[in-house]
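Lab meeting, item 3. Inverse folding demo.
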């Protein structure tokens, strides 16, 4: 019998920048995209929990605050297996990879 797995830990970054701050907004967006962060909604980003993810989100939070915005870095546990599966699916790049391969 399979033992249920413990919920996975995730890092969440919640940011808000003034709408007139396009340059910092783009800088942060590019950095988060480069990290592979999933977008849960505008200003809410998710990474699998790790010290590196926490450090990366903390660095971006500081950049947001220096630009006059607000930011929180939070640790989140998926409350149930289905939520954990949904979070994990946000990082499945198989479809994107297949589309890229088919363009060759």
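The presenter then showed the designed sequence:
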């Amino acid at each position: 019998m399979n033992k249920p797995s413990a919920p996975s830990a995730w890092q969440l970054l919640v940011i808000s920048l003034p709408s007139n701050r396009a340059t910092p907004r783009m800088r942060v967006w590019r950095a988060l995209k480069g990290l592979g962060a999933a977008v849960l909604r505008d200003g809410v980003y998710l990474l699998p929990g790790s010290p590196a993810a926490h450090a990366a989100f903390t660095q971006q939070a500081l950049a947001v605050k220096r630009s006059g915005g607000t930011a929180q870095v939070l640790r989140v546990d998926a409350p149930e297996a289905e939520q954990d599966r949904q979070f994990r699916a946000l990082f499945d790049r198989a479809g994107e990879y297949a589309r890229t391969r088919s363009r060759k």
